[in-house]
Amino acid sequence: MNPTRADLHSPEITTDHLKQLARFLGAERVGVVELKGSNTPNEDGSDAYPFVIVCGVRTDYDPRTAKGVGGQVAVRNGRFVTFTLASYIRELGYRATNQLPADEQQMAAAAGFGTLDAEGRLMAPKSGPRLHVADEVIHTDLPLAPDGEA
């Protein structure tokens, strides 16, 4: 993490720039969720991560059922996007991790991607079945403008 924080625009402009970068990297959908009760400090005494960034990438196959190389391309693409975004945020001097546990389907629904069905799977009306929500979401303290709350 860069020890000097970058000067940022407003949270709305910063969010727009981050979403544009994610789309450039291959994300079809990008959303920001504000976590309720995130002011509780972590075990190490640091502040909690108040925001989660969720990315969805286009897929031709459902990675849960297509275990071959073709079915796993979306998984790789989603991880590439989240890894690169988290690295970029750390270069700005803010904390970002995709190692914390999170329910990516629930976070995607909170970000406005769609709704959850009875099995807890995301139903995205704009993207249909061709959207894979990246397995790793980004937890960050970068000031952002949320699309939803969880």
Element order, helices and strands?
HEEHEHEEEEE
State the low-pLDDT regions, or none.
Answer: none
- Strand percentage lies at 15-25%
Provide the residue-averaged pLDDT. 86
Q: Characterize the largest beta sheet: strand count, sense, and whether it forms a barrel.
A: 6 strands, mixed
Secondary structure class reads: alpha+beta
**What's the number of domains?**
1
Share in helix: 25-40%
**Total count of strands:** 8
Sum up the overall morphology in one term: globular
Q: How far is the N terminus from the C terminus?
A: 26 Å
Count of alpha and pi helical runs: 3
Provide the gyration radius in Å.
15 Å
Structural features:
150 residues; alpha+beta; six-stranded mixed β-sheet; single chain; globular
